[in-house]
């Protein structure tokens, strides 16, 4: 459910100013959401029991549960880190506290207080809904946090020249700003499609991750209010300077990931694979998270990591296979069938993007124009995704923004086929690299690539719009009418704004690339019917940017009322340029850069908002330049 917070700031002041380093190693955060339960985890410096007090918003009945501190051996600082960074005096192991709050009401806000030692943390959460209600989730990949990200500016490929520049803000700032925008959108869930940290085996990198995602103030803690649902990426399996991907170092690395997260059970016969893949039904959607970081046989055309030995490799670890015949594949098919029967939409998350024009879009191998961590082997799952009507697959790995469309036939339970399209996203622009396409990669299914399709717009040496930036995918799912639901997928980027006062890109704002996708779903009994409408009724305006006049082209599938308004960055209406009844077909509407009184508007960024019929709204961005 789209969160509406009922916070009385006066009652929160004390939690907002407490600094808890003496008691907390990692501040409290949420895991494993359910209609009747929620888990709260935290790590303390000392083996002292803590407590969790919770109550339904507006209720005076409070319940307190004690915590049992467990030594978190898996997240001990390595000897290498101890020597290099702490001169032999690294912090001791912390203590894990995990409380499962049960017997809750679905779709309900609860407030909670964690007391650890002399420190108090206060926040709130909403339980998962029971039944179909509007929800919002956000997804990104490739944060790759590490202390060294501060002051490190990512390479930023120039789309017009064969040269590489450096991005406008460092990686730490980029990730921090991205999370600030995510937090401001108040999502129900946040999915991270792998590579949370730079090196899964380096504890300092995990410290950096939680420094960004938790906070001593419950008001400012993203993970303290919204469950983080993560997929392991290849970096989570990478021990770094110790053993790299070799065993047993790789398993030591991924156990840090497994120590921090608590997801719905997958009932794998191998208990070491719990939390590596899982499924979550949340309102009108089913979200399936996979571990595709390895596949057997090692070094074959089906392997996504030639350096990593998994469950079926000699001397391998517990990284699960994912090909036909594997335990994960059988589990996946069961989850997909259940989702097709019971949910309006199905989203799948994992790390290795199967369709990409980035470095991991090369076929598997170790020669020129090959990659030993290729995402291409994951394409073996596309027929299964197609059979059960997966709507979108959300991945990362290539540190770019790219959307692909793969057409085919979805099969209903009676064996009848109907046309279907799956959208494959690479959302690997969380907070690390900002790559462009690599020469020699082949992605015939590509439909949108930021590097190519969103040109940078500069004025007087200052970037005013466009280009590759850190960001995320926002998905809003809501009921249109009756048994019809829509999922709106928005590619969000966090645009750095130039400050003339200090001549830096110190500020930022949320913007959306012109590649919104709308999925429309309805159900008849247990048969899931979907109508896929890419970009719905609207194409980008042209020319864009413009100085004298721009045209907005849109296509109506049915006759309907239409209204197009122009708005400034503050959302204020500048002018209505079209309003009335229109027939089906192609239409054009022009804006000359003037408001409703005929006054010329100042150069800058504006938005057009197109409304058609009941409940359908699309927006787009345009840049007005100075007139010559």
Summarize the structure.
The protein is mostly beta strands and 628 residues long. Helices cover 12% and strands 37% of the residues.
Plain-language structure description:
With about 625 residues, the protein is mainly β. It is about 10% helix and about 35% strand. The chain is built from eight helices and 33 strands. Strands 9, 12, 13, 23, 24, 25, 26 and 27 form an eight-stranded mixed β-sheet that branches. A seven-stranded mixed β-sheet has the order 14-15-16-17-19-18-20. Strands 1-2-6-5 form a four-stranded antiparallel β-sheet. The longest helix is centred in the middle third of the chain and has 16 residues, at about 325-340. The protein is globular.
Runs with pLDDT <50, length 5+?
1-20, 524-538
Euclidean distance between termini CA atoms: 48 Å
DSSP helix fraction = 10-25%
- Mean pLDDT value: 90
Structural class call reads: mainly beta
Radius of gyration: 25 Å
What is the strand tally? Answer: 33
% residues in beta strands: 35-45%
**SS field, number of helical segments:** 8
Largest sheet: 8 strands, mixed
Give the topology.
Blueprint: H1 13-17, E1 24-34, E2 37-44, E3 51-56, E4 63-66, E5 70-71, H2 79-86, E6 95-101, E7 109-116, E8 119-126, E9 135-140, E10 155-157, E11 164-166, H3 171-184, E12 189-193, H4 203-213, E13 228-231, H5 249-260, E14 278-282, E15 285-289, H6 327-342, E16 345-352, H7 382-387, E17 392-396, E18 401-411, E19 417-427, E20 446-449, H8 450-453, E21 457-459, E22 462-465, E23 471-481, E24 484-499, E25 504-512, E26 517-524, E27 527-534, E28 550-556, E29 560-567, E30 573-582, E31 585-591, E32 604-612, E33 616-624
Parallel strand pairs: 9-12, 12-13, 15-16, 16-17, 17-19
Antiparallel strand pairs: 1-2, 2-6, 3-4, 3-7, 5-6, 7-8, 9-23, 10-11, 14-15, 18-19, 18-20, 21-22, 23-24, 24-25, 24-26, 26-27, 28-31, 29-30, 29-32, 32-33
């Amino acid at each position: 459910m789209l969160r509406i917070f009922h916070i009385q700031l006066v009652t929160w002041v004390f939690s907002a100013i407490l600094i808890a380093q003496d008691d907390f190693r990692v501040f409290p955060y949420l895991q494993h959401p359910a209609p009747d339960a929620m888990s709260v985890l935290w790590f303390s410096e000392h083996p002292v029991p803590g407590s969790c007090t919770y109550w339904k918003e507006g209720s005076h009945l409070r319940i307190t549960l004690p915590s049992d501190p467990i030594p978190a051996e898996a997240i001990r600082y390595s000897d290498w880190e101890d020597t290099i960074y702490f001169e032999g005096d690294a912090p001791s192991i912390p203590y894990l506290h995990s409380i499962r709050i049960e017997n809750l009401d679905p779709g309900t806000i609860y407030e909670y207080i964690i007391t650890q030692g002399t420190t108090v943390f206060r926040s709130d959460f909403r339980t998962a809904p029971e039944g179909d209600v509007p929800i919002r989730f956000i997804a990104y990949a490739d944060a790759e946090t590490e202390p060294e990200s501060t002051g490190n500016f990512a390479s930023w490929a120039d789309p017009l020249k064969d040269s590489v520049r450096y991005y406008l803000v460092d990686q730490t700032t980029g990730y921090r700003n991205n999370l600030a925008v995510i937090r401001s959108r108040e999502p129900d869930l946040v999915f991270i499609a792998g590579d949370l940290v730079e090196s899964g085996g380096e504890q300092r990198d995990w410290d950096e991750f939680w420094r960004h995602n938790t906070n001593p103030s419950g008001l400012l803690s993203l993970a303290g209010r919204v469950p983080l649902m993560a997929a392991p990426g290849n970096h989570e399996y990478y021990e770094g300077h110790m053993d790299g991907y070799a065993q047993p170092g790789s398993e030591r690395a991924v156990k840090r990931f497994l120590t921090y997260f608590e997801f719905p059970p997958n009932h794998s016969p191998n208990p070491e694979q719990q939390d590596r893949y899982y499924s979550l039904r949340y309102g009108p959607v089913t979200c399936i998270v996979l571990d595709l970081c390895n596949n057997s046989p090692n070094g074959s055309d089906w392997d996504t990591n030639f350096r990593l030995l998994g469950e079926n490799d000699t001397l391998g670890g517990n990284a699960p296979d994912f090909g036909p015949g594997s335990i994960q594949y059988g589990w996946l098919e069961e989850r997909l069938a259940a989702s097709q029967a019971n949910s309006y939409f199905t989203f799948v998350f994992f790390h290795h993007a199967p369709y990409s024009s980035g470095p991991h879009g090369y076929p598997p191998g170790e020669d020129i124009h090959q990659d030993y961590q290729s995402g291409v082997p994951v394409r073996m799952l596309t027929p299964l995704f197609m059979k059960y009507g997966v709507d979108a697959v959300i991945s990362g790995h290539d540190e770019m923004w790219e959307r692909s469309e793969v057409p085919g036939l979805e099969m209903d339970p009676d064996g009848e086929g109907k046309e279907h399209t799956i959208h494959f996203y690479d959302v690997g622009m969380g907070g690390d690299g900002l790559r462009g396409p690599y020469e020699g990669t082949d992605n015939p299914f590509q439909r949108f690539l930021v590097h190519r399709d969103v040109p940078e717009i500069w004025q007087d040496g200052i970037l005013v719009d466009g280009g590759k930036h850190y960001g995320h995918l926002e998905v809003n799912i809501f009921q249109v009418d009756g048994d019809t639901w829509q999922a709106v997928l928005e590619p969000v980027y966090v645009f750095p704004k130039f400050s003339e006062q200090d001549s830096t890109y110190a500020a930022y704002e949320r913007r959306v690339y012109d590649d919104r996708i709308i999925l429309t779903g309805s159900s008849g009994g247990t048969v899931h019917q979907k109508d896929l409408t890419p970009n719905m009724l609207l194409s980008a305006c042209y020319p864009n940017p413009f100085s004298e006049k721009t045209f907005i082209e849109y296509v109506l599938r049915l006759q309907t009322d239409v209204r197009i308004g122009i708005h400034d960055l503050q959302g204020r209406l500048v002018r209505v340029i079209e309003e009335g009844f229109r027939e089906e077909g192609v239409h054009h509407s022009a804006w000359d850069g003037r408001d409703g009184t005929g006054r010329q508007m100042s150069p800058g960024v504006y938005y057009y908002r197109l409304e058609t019929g009941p409940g359908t709204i699309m927006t787009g961005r345009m840049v007005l330049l100075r007139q010559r």
